[in-house]
Amino acid sequence: MRHLIQLIVAALAVAGAVVTGLAARSVVVVAPIADGQPSTTSAAFDPPLMLLTWLLITAAGVLAVLGVAGLVRARRARAVRTPASDPPAPEPS
């Protein structure tokens, strides 16, 4: 159950990273370099929002690895404990 929660939180962190990543970018108008030239546009990024995006992506990656590794470990532990792999019980004499 803990590993599924880690995967859900990782998915939420990815969603938050997408939202903050989109909010961090804005388009600004750049003045022309020479007279008679048209103005251009450029992308400007908000540093605090970019940092938050990178932290959310990092947390999502760590949680995803921990969640998947835990699920794989749990599945392998269940496979080892199957009744077919248990040694036979001694017969009463």
From TrEMBL:
<protein>
    <recommendedName>
        <fullName>Transmembrane protein</fullName>
    </recommendedName>
</protein>
<feature type="transmembrane region" description="Helical">
    <location>
        <begin position="47"/>
        <end position="72"/>
    </location>
</feature>
<keyword id="KW-0812">Transmembrane</keyword>
<keyword id="KW-0472">Membrane</keyword>
<keyword id="KW-1133">Transmembrane helix</keyword>
